[in-house]
Every structure is written in C-alpha cells, then in structure tokens.
Amino acid sequence: MQSTFGTLYVGDFTMQDRNWQVNLQSEMNFRSRPEDLSKVFVRSEHGQMLPLTSLFSLERDVGPDVIK
C-alpha cells in the first residue's frame, strides 16, 4: 500500500561518483482518487489475485484534520 499510494524508500546506488536515493511511487493519476483502490490486487492464501476492494469498503465522512 505504501509504495502504491505513497512513497517507499528502496535503497541507494552510486553513479558517476554520486549517491542516488531510489524511491518507489505510482504516477499521481493512478493514485489520486479512492476509486483507484479497485485497480490494486493482492494475492490470497490460495494464490488467486483479488481486488483490494473485495476486502473492505470505503465511506466518506466529515471530521477534523487533526485531533490533539
């Protein structure tokens, strides 16, 4: 989930005497809407690929951004 809808640090490599950080991230237009979760699949314990949305449902709700 983190690499699909966020950014995941993968590692570092060196090229031309410089160190580069490798991060894995999906394109913004594939991860910007809640409906994009229907395009993500996970493997079941029986080896079948299941859409992630078959495991949960989403519901929009209003609430505070931060709770102290």
Keywords:
two-stranded antiparallel ribbon, Multidrug efflux transporter AcrB TolC docking domain, DN and DC subdomains, 68 residues, mainly beta
Q: For this structure, what is the CATH homologous superfamily? A: Multidrug efflux transporter AcrB TolC docking domain, DN and DC subdomains
Strand content is 25-35%
How far do the termini sit from each other? 26 Å
Helix content: under 10%
The CATH C-level name is Alpha Beta
Q: What structural class do the secondary elements suggest?
A: mainly beta
Report the CATH topology name: Multidrug efflux transporter AcrB TolC docking domain, DN and DC subdomains
Domain module count: 1
Q: How is the biggest beta sheet arranged?
A: 2 strands, antiparallel
Order of helices and strands: HEEEE
**Mean pLDDT, nearest integer?**
89
Query: Could you say what the CATH architecture is?
Result: 2-Layer Sandwich
What characteristic shape results from the CA principal axes?
extended
- CA radius of gyration is 17 Å
Poorly predicted ranges (pLDDT <50, ≥5 residues)? none
Q: Reading side by side through the largest sheet, how are the strands ordered?
A: 1-2
What oligomeric state is this? Answer: single chain
